[in-house]
Write a structure and sequence with these properties.
Elements lengths: L6 E4 L2 E4 L3 H4 L8 E5 L6 E5 L11 H26 L1
Antiparallel strand pairs: 1-2, 3-4
Length: 85
């Protein structure tokens, strides 16, 4: 099933509206992959499987969380002032 849509501007990005009837049970926030197809001006959109909740984090994800937590702890007061500015 295909549909004709226009590209729209969203901030500094470009987006396309995907009608609900094409999404099925998926909702906004579902992970997707957009690939340029072999034909010119053609893209393929694939809905990816969602991560299961409760899945253990990988080493890289744990490291990112650790660095982020350390940054927030160190600069919490400065971040709060920026938020309130």
């Amino acid at each position: 099933m295909a549909t004709l849509q226009k590209l729209i501007k969203v901030g500094t990005s470009t987006a396309a509206v995907i009608p609900k009837r094409l999404l099925g049970a998926r909702t906004a926030g579902a992970p997707i992959r957009v690939e340029r197809a072999a034909r010119p001006d053609t893209f393929t959109v694939r809905i990816l499987p969602e991560k299961r909740k409760g899945t253990a984090l990988g080493a890289r994800e744990k490291r990112v969380l650790s660095v982020t937590d350390a940054f927030i702890k160190r600069y919490r007061a400065d971040l709060k002032r920026l938020k309130d500015a």
